[in-house]
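ok trying again, last paste got cut off:
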Amino acid sequence: MTSFEIIEESENNIVVKLKGVPLQYANALRRICLSGIPTFAIDDVVIIENTSVLADEGVSHRLAMLPLKTDLARFVEPSACDCHSDLGCSRCRVLMMLDSGNSDTTRTITSQDLSSEDEVVKPVNPSVPIVALAPGQKLKVEAYARLGRGSEHAKWNSATVAVLTQGNNADEHILAIETVGSLTAGQVVKNAVEELEKRLDEFQQTIAALS
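nice, full thing came through this time. structure:
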């Protein structure tokens, strides 16, 4: 008999017991939790002005690696969007702006300085340093975030930790997940189960078409 039991759960961590689930399916679920769930990340940066000591590429990389809160109910991956546009639309991308302004003192620009056009999609942690600006230096950028998966790039990983261990009985496995904060731990597991079911259905259809 197959069962799914939550042993521990918090916003960013969850431990579940899988009973009667074959090891290969349990491991597939682990991998999907880690890098198979869509999350938001900055994928395109337009540098309007950068007089900091950090090169444009460095600024873009730091922005791209910021974990962003994700809403899967209102947004879709670009490949599934009806707009079929490289620029994206309101259903598949979110515009973010960063304008440091002018200052006569040395200061550190953090993720809190990144404003989003969407009330949900914004940095998970407002205190992540992006660049230090000396007096007179300025940074102004436009950044575009979209949904992607960790299998494409690590910046879209939905979890930082996904560990599968043997339970007390031979048919039990313990799955422990720690998220990056883009989605809650419960959302990651729920979406991973749905994604695994979808992939298995697609695989069965492919096999049926070949027979």
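cool. The mean pLDDT is 95. The domain at 40-149 is CATH 2.170.120.12 (RNA Polymerase Alpha Subunit; Chain A, domain 2).
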